[in-house]
Design brief:
Strand content: under 5%
Distance between the termini: 24 Å
Helix content: over 70%
Structural class: mainly alpha
Number of helices: 11
Number of domains: 1
Shape: elongated
Largest sheet: none
Number of strands: 0
Order of helices and strands: HHHHHHHHHHH
């Protein structure tokens, strides 16, 4: 179990850094903005679409598009939880206070999850509401929160975001620099978005098996794999990243 005092200490460090608090608010604000922006664009396209295009219209896609951009912010939040201590020089005192490296890593992971989950719930909830209200206001098809597809996105989407924050934390512990970790995480997370520019085989590989792409596919139930397996790819990947991060942290940090 994580000692309550260690978690409180991690929260104190998190809340005392302006960048982490601003980034948490930015996740929610950006979610609402992208939900409105993509839905507004989609509604205009729907108004001039053909009959077949209207039949193929998927209201939840507007939420999905926003999530593919906001994921960069939630991952960066996890990065900052790790790298802020390297930048401020407080890692040594933190290790001395906690006593065990494993306890510090677990506390950071626990605090990251406890912060990222409610932030993700608020962000994805706002994204869903703004996107669907915008579609409805302009006469395009929309989903209600009780719709099975919408419910899956609202329940599983925040879990995927939380896992991506934990991915950012692991990457921060591995690279120990904010700029490097954010650049690597952004490139990694955007690979499924860039999939259409690659040959068909590589494009299918990225959209189906790339960890974050698989996670988002599970959210929308549009994966070629069973949703449980798609989601499991992301969970397994994050677990491997944390094992690697802890191994490096235990062996190399002062």
């Amino acid at each position: 179990m994580i000692a309550t005092g260690v978690l409180k200490a991690e929260w104190t460090k998190f809340s005392s850094i302006r960048a982490t608090m601003v980034l948490s608010l930015a996740v929610v604000a950006a979610s609402g903005f992208f939900g409105w922006t993509f839905a507004n664009m989609a509604a205009h396209e729907y108004a001039t679409a053909s009959a077949q295009e209207r039949l193929d219209f998927l209201p939840l896609d507007q939420v999905m598009r926003g999530m593919l951009l906001v994921q960069l912010l939630i991952s960066a939040l996890g990065v900052l939880v790790a790298t802020s201590e390297y930048g401020s020089g407080t890692l040594g005192p933190s290790l001395a206070a906690v006593g065990r490296r494993s306890r510090l890593v677990i506390a950071k992971a626990g605090m990251t999850a406890l912060v990222a989950l409610p932030v993700s719930v608020a962000g994805i909830g706002l994204m869903f509401v703004t996107s669907q209200v915008t579609l409805a206001a302009q006469g395009a098809p929309y989903l209600m929160p009780g719709d099975p597809d919408a419910l899956l996105a609202l329940l599983l989407g925040p879990v995927v975001f939380t896992l991506l924050a934990l991915f950012g934390l692991a990457l921060g512990l591995l690279l120990r620099g904010t700029a490097a970790a954010v650049n690597v995480s952004s490139t990694f997370l955007l690979m499924p978005v860039l999939a259409p520019i690659f040959p068909d085989f590589l494009s299918r590989l990225l959209t189906t098996y790339w960890p974050n792409g698989a996670g988002f596919r599970a959210v929308t139930s549009r994966s070629d794999l069973p949703p449980v397996l798609s989601f499991g790819l992301l969970v397994g990947f994050v677990a491997v990243m944390h094992i690697a991060a802890f191994t490096r942290f235990a062996r190399r940090d002062a």
